[in-house]
Amino acid sequence: MKILVLNCGSSSFKYQLIDMDGEAVLAKGLVERIGIAGSKIKHTKTGKDPVTREVDFPNHTVAIKYVLEMLTDPEHGVLKDLSELSAAGHRMVHGGEKFTSSVLVTPEVIQAIEEVVHLAPLHNPANLQGVRALMEVLPGIPNVVVFDTAFHQTMPPKAFTYGIPFSYYEEDRVRRYGFHGTSHYYVANRAAEILGRPIEELKTVTCHLGNGSSITAVDGGKSVDTSLGYGTAEGVLMGTRSGSLDPSVMLYLMEKHGDVKTVSDIVHKKSGLQGISGISSDLRDVEEAAEKGDERARLAQEMLIYHVKKYIGSYAAAMGGIDVLVFTAGIGENGISFREDVCRGLEFMGIKIDPEKNKVRGKEAIFSTPDSRVMVMVIPTDEEMVIARDTKKCCEGR
Ligand code: ADP
Questions:
Q1: Mutate which of 184, 282, 305 for ligand 1 pocket (most atoms within 8 A of beta carbon)
Q2: 330 within ligand 1 shell (Cβ under 6 A)
Q3: Which residue lies with its CA nearest to atom 14 of ligand 1?
């Protein structure tokens, strides 16, 4: 069974073609600047060099048609014919409270996703564009949507409710939803698999740290708390997002600037590593500047380490213990000194790492010492594989 996985943004999308027999990625690619001058595609057939082409993509439908041509191209393709494609799986950022797992796309599902568009006004419409474009280009195959929020729907009310009048939850569904669920689910389950332990027995803290970051408490395989909330700025310091703020700070910013858009730009686009360091949203640049003695870069770096430490400690307390600590995504998979700094000082809670074993980038590794009570791991995330597996499962259940 061959599945096309699509992760659609408003002007770009990523794709992978996965053969579920053996779970092999046959090809993958990135389409950028859809609807903007200079649109292009970078396509890679597994085992071959990437091909980059500038092509005019006025919309998602035209771009998806082109991807299908690439996938069946005699030289760069991996399919003889599109009839080999069994289904498509799509990343959907927000499923509100309605979707607790992945589902086959039907007109009712599309309508339900549209009903929660206000919760992810930038992401859901873009994700839906991909679904619609694929349905138009390949009407014969089933489509499945996999929600970033679904894994977190097991959080108990005490973890997802904000301390404002309850009517805002009842009437407007203002609550913690959490994001990166597909990634947290993947790495928590992969950790259990690597350790050869049933996930039901494990208390795991998963740290997904990239441009956007979130930390999740996974108790017995279920998300019980997560650091991102109603929107995507809560929790730890991110590339350009603030992380948790005292509401009074938001009120002050609103009074000072007087409009929601300006304040939204401040907390989403001008804060985080970028806002503190004044140098970059990329941790590598910040680390380099800190190394050279830049004080604000050093502060930004220290803040991120401190925030992550605090979440690990608080989630261990929330679960009544911790057996596994996992680092994933750009910073989590590659930040060697960052991981060491986060773990330093956590020996009191059973976290003991081996700095030599920690010297890995983008590879699965256990870097705790043999006598560490907590298994500390790096696991590269693979959201596409979760999407492909869920797509297969949903199609088999038809
Ligand atoms: P996104 O959230 O956009 O998917 P990624 O998961 O790709 O982002 O993470 C990107 C971030 O990973 C970069 O901004 C950078 O800060 C960080 N990163 C990548 N490599 C390293 C490294 N070697 N050391 C520290 N941070 C790194």
A1: 282
A2: yes
A3: 282
237 lines ligand 1 (CB under 6 A): no
CATH T-level fold of 197-383 = Nucleotidyltransferase; domain 5 (3.30.420)
- Whose CA is closest to atom 7 on ligand 1? 330
Over residues 118-126, the mean pLDDT reads: 87
Question: With a 6 A CB cut-off, is 215 part of the ligand 1 pocket?
Answer: no
Q: Which CATH number fits domain 2-147: 3.20.14.10, 3.40.50.300, 3.20.20.140, 3.30.420.40?
A: 3.30.420.40
Q: Is residue 397 scored above 80 in pLDDT?
A: no
User: For residues 6 and 388, what is the distance between their CA atoms, to the nearest angstrom?
Assistant: 10
Active-site residue flag, 148 = yes
Say how many Å lie between the CA of residue 339 and the centre of ligand 1.
Answer: 13
Catalytic residue among 148, 219, 323, 382: 148
Task: Note the pLDDT tens digit of each residue in 49-90.
Answer: 999 999 999 999 999 999 999 999 999 999 999 999 999 999
Q: From the CA atom positions of the chain, what is the Rg in Å?
A: 21
Quick one: average pLDDT of 174-193? 98
> Residue 232 — very low, low, confident or very high, per pLDDT cuts 50/70/90?
very high
Domain ranges within the chain, ordered by starting residue: 2-147, 197-383
Same fold for the pair 2-147 and 197-383: yes
